[in-house]
Task: structure prediction
Amino acid sequence: MKKYSDKYEKMAQAPVKPLIVSLAVPTIITMLVTAVYNMADSFFVGRIDTTSVASIGIVFSVMTLLQALGFFLGHGSGIMMSSMLGAKETEKAKKYANTAFFLAFALGTLLAVIGVFTSKGIAYLLGATETTVVPASEYLRIILIGAPFILTSFVLNNHLRYQGSAVYSMAGIMSGSILNIALDPLFIFKFNLGVKGAAIATVISQFTGFIILILGTFKNQNIRLGFRYFSPTKEICLNIFKNGLPSLSRQGVMTIGNICLNFASGQFGDAAVAGMSVFNRVMFLGMAVIIGIGQGFQPVCAFNYGAKNYGRVYDGYKFTAALPTVFITLFAVVCFIFAPYIISLFRDDPEVIKFGSLALRADCVIMPVTGYYMSTNMLIQSIRMPAVATVLAIARQGLFYIPLILILPRLFGENGLAFTQAVCDLLSFILSIILATPIIKKLKTDSSS
Result:
C-alpha cells in the first residue's frame, strides 16, 4: 500500500480491500491471541480438576459482561469518532473519546467495589452450585477488582481501531494476553494458588495491556486522553449509547445466555458445565477471526459513510462478507473431524469430552452461515442504523438462544443442550437476510449514483 499524506487521505482513497486487510490483520491477531488467552485459563485450570474448570466457566459470563460494557462505550464512541474525523470535526471526536473513557473507568470502579463485597452471592446468581461456588467466587472477586482497567482497555482498543491504528491496538491487547499465558502456570502451580492464581494472572495482564494502550494514544496522530475533553452532555451520551447499543445488546445477551447455559447444563452435572465451557472457548477461537475481519471493516465503513463515499462502503461490505465465510467453513470442517481430541486438550475426562464434542460437531454443521450474519450486523451498526443492528445483535445469543437453552434441554436432554447453539445460528442467519436485504439494496443503489 502506497504512502498517504495523512490518515484522512488513507481512509478515503486507499484501495478498499487492502485497506480492510491492513486493519483486519492486527485485529485478527489480537482476537486470536485473546481467544488463546481465554482458553489458557481453561487449559491450565483443567490440570487441577473438573470442578475448577466448571467454576471459571461460570465466571466466563462476567467476562462477557465486562466486554459488553467496554464494547458498548468503545463502539458507541468509536463510530462517532470515525464519522467526525471523516467529516473533519476533530474537536468533537476528542470529546467522544474522552467521555467514553472516563465513563468506563467510573463504571469499572463501581463494579470493583460491588465485587469485593458480594462475589459469593453473584456466583450463585450466575449458576454456581455448592461444589463450585467457593472457587467461582474467589475467581470472580479478583476479576472484578481489575474491572476499571478491563473496561477502559476495551474502550481504548476500539478507539485506536476506529482511528485506523489497529497496530497499536494489537500491541496493547496482545501484550496483556501473552503475559497472561505466561503467568497462569506460575500463579496456579508454582505459587499453588489454583483458581485464584488464574484470576490474579488475568488482572495483572489486563493492567499491563491498559498501560500499553494508553501509550498508543500518543502515537500516529491519535486522539490523546485529557479530562478537559470529558463532556458528558446529553447529545454526546445519547449518541454513544445509541451507537453502542447493538454491541451492548450482542454481548449483554451473551452474558445472560451464558448464565442460562450454566443453569441448563448444571442439571447434568459439573462435567456438562465444564464441557460446554470448553466448547464456548473453542468456538470463540473461530469467531475471533470473523469478528477481527469485521472490525477491520468497521472503521473503513464508518469513516467513508461519514464522508459520503458510499461506493467504498458497499465494496468493503462485499469483501467482508465473503472472506470470513471462507475461513469459518474451513474451521468448521477441522473442528467437526477432530472435535473429541480438541475438547480433550482442556480436560481429559470422558464425560467432559462427550458433552463438549457433541456441541462442537452440532454447531460445525451450521457454522459457515455466521460469516454473513456477523459481517452484515457490523455493516448496519457502522452506518448508524442502531435499531436494526440491535435486533440482529440480540438475535443469536438472546432472542433465540435464551428461550431455546431453557426449553430444548428439558425436551431432548443432553442432545437439546448440545444442539441449541446450532439452531440459534441458523435462525439468526435467516433473520439477517430478512432485515438486511432492503438496507443492502439501498446501499448498492447509493453507491452507483
In short: The radius of gyration is 21 Å.
